[in-house]
Amino acid sequence: MQVSVLGCGGSSGVPALGGEDGRGQWGACDPAEPRNRRTRASIFLRMRDGCGVLVDTGPDLRAQLLAHGISAFEHVIYTHTHADHVAGIDELRGINRQISKAINAYGTADVLEELQQRFAYVFKPVTPPHFFRAALVGCPVTLGRSVSIGGYEFTLFEQNHGYVTSMGIRCGTFAYSTDVVELPAEAMECLQGVQTWMVDCFQRTPHGAHAWLERVLEWKARIQPQRLILTHMGMEMDWEWMRQNLPEGVEAAWDGMSFELPDPPRMP
């Protein structure tokens, strides 16, 4: 399984709009370091048989897919409905045109209901061979259970994202926890044995809806993954500072990062 980091930034990206010259607010991040430039958080999983699974469709999706050479897949998982994770949903039309069918969209019943309210046209019957709009088929999932996606086992667990619930994803020895500030006991149990964990770390100081560095390191001590990768990072998280100060086994993601892991188990 290849894991591609399409984006690892927070809801505003880095740089955020504004700045004295109108070319962005960088905060503590050095503008001269390319790995400080972050689009909105999303990952893509490609199994060895070619099965592709996208996680979230943020507003930067078109540029992200082009940058990674991704033009065909049949599955997308939605972790929650915040705009920085769903606002690029219309870009899926280009994928529909490549695969000539609707894309399977996995999310909890509440998430799919809200998506269907906000983007009702996306869930109408498909119109092949001419796709004039994005086309999705809703696939409801239940947190705390495993589901077959493309024939592979994905375990989906509940996360506290401050004012809302988000969904964590375990796929074999890999787990992805974007947009989380607290992990219930069931999530901690699901994460046991994970070897590579990509987790929300928005900033170095406490935040009401996102994990921060101290909290992430506390989770690491409990879960003990071999490799912990920070994502959904804001303007406090300068690349060079992290390179010099993160402990062994902890690293920062960057837009364009990619790595190989074993495929998850097959399901009937």
From TrEMBL:
Record InterPro entries: Metallo-B-lactamas, RibonucZ/Hydroxyglut_hydro
Pfam families linked: Lactamase_B_2
Residue ranges of domain Metallo-beta-lactamase in the record: 39-232
Annotated Gene3D superfamilies: Ribonuclease Z/Hydroxyacylglutathione hydrolase-like (3.60.15.10)
Record carries keyword Cytoplasm: no
Statement: the UniProt record of this protein carries the keyword Transmembrane: no
Keywords: Hydrolase
GO MF term set: hydrolase activity
Superkingdom as given in the UniProt entry: Bacteria
Signal sequence range: none
Name of the molecule in the record: Hydrolase
Organism this protein belongs to: Acetobacter okinawensis
